[in-house]
Amino acid sequence: LSAGTVLLGKVGFTLRRAEGGLAVESGLFTRRRTEIPLQKVQAVRIVAPLLLRWMGFASLRVDTAAGGNPGEPSAAEADLPMVILEDAPRLVPVFLPGTGDALSAPLRPPAPAYPLAEAIETALVLVPLAAIAVAVGAPAFAVLPVLLVGVALAWTVARRRGWVLTPLALVVREGLFTVETTVLPLDRMQH
Q1: Who's near 127: CB < 8 A, 6+ residues apart?
Q2: pLDDT digits (tens, 9 = 90+) for 28-54
């Protein structure tokens, strides 16, 4: 039911230039219009869940400094629900003028010790849970693979993270099943 509500909320999606920014409209039964002043845009996120990524799509989320209406979330002011994955980097400068080259810069990997630290932290959580599962009767041969997969996933996710600092923006990528790339313009970062 909630997935259907979300889909109906994205029907009729339009993005238009408006005075001082952009206007986003969507919704089938209830139309919602959001005006986004470009000077209020704090970050743009390209979100690519595994299934959408395989089909060549992603969504673009625009975070602004402006608050939302009472009862509405204030963080993601605009959510472009379905963009062609390879077009997403070209759409970022529409919301963040001057950051176009930021996504073409190669990302730096995390510090070498970071994946190991993430794997150890995950193991510190999973080992007690595995011990409890065995203590209440779960077979150890079934619990051990789950433990190992959890630690391996933590290691892999940590290794896939990356970042780059350009003269105009900070770009951060993270995620394994859902890859999220965030572009933050340096002139709008709060000190």
Answers
A1: 147
A2: 777 777 788 888 888 999 999 999 999
Q: In the 3-class helix/strand/coil scheme, how is 17-59 assigned residue by residue? A: EECCEEEEEECCCCCEEEEEEHHHEEEEEEEEEHHHHHCCEEE
Could you count the other beta carbons within 10 Å of the beta carbon of residue 48? 21
What is the pLDDT at residue 75?
A: 45
The strand pair at 41-49 and 178-185 is best described as antiparallel
What are the tokens at 39? 């000077």
Alpha carbon separation from 145 to 53, 62, 121, 140, 150 (Å, rounded): 28, 39, 17, 9, 8
pLDDT of residue 47: 95
Greater confidence, 30 or 123? 123
